[in-house]
Design a protein that fits this description.
By secondary structure, the chain is mainly β. The chain folds into two domains: 24-146, no CATH class; 192-318, no CATH class. 8% of the residues lie in helices and 45% in strands. It contains three helices and 27 strands. Strand 1, helix 3 (51-57) and strand 2 form a beta-alpha-beta unit.
Length: 318
Amino acid sequence: MKKLIVVGIIILLVGMSIPSTGINIDKVSTSSFGGNTLYVGGDGPGNYTRIQDAINASSDGDIVFVYNGTYYERLEINKSLELIGEDRNSTIIDGMNIFIHGWNPLISKNVTICGFTIIAILELQGHGNITITNNNILGYDFRFDLYDQNGLNICSGIGNYIISNNTISGWNDSGMYWWTPSSWMKFTIINNVFSDNKYDGIYIEKDGHIVIGNIFINNYIGLNMADSNECNISGNTFKGNTCGMNLGNCNHNKIYQNNFIKNIRMVRFYLGSYYNNWDSNYWGRPRVLPKAIIGSIGLFIPSWFNIDRTPAKEPYDI
């Protein structure tokens, strides 16, 4: 028995003396893909210096885990993988753009980007499911001499895109811009902050999107929607924008339990945006009577109105 106790103590001491690798197992074992993990920026054997080198060496289903540091790179991702940063405030990608694509109609590409400060245009397109979560996506300065910069630049494709828990701010045009839209692409935009973008916090088109729990602050237009029907717009705060929300040719959207606070114009709608359901929104002050929301049949002349019949008496905690 004494020998067993001594052996146990020796094993314990040896285990305690093995140096830590610095890998946070909790952070790198959360993959839903079930592939291998490649590391960037660490000190151990097999670590890559550049993120793109690790992406090139990866296979579909792998994780690329990036340690804290600043990486001056343009990235191209054309396979299914998770790109995970150690810490969203200390793992920085500083480059002109990150391009995620996968146009093969027979192969769905599934990509997750999580845990970075991204000082680059993030361009998403193609067939698949893309998740952008828990990042800072910041407008860069003018060292590239580019204009009309959008933080998230989203092209046509097929799939489901989830944009969640990000801060997207400081862009010269829109924080998030969806161009050449497809009816087969659906968005869930949840719990993000869109702030200090020169034009839109979000510009979005087409039907059936979910925009919940976001904060739009100090943009020209907080949420700008065109040709968008049957969307769920709820639990958002629009504050300090020139225009909180703009709808052009949008109908049958559910717009409820949002805060509209200190925007120069709370809401603007036009070009046939007649039939939207406004309910229980907070309009900058307690209201007893229904709130009339003035719109126009054409572009400029006020000629139509919607009604929020049960406006909230106090702002929601968002």
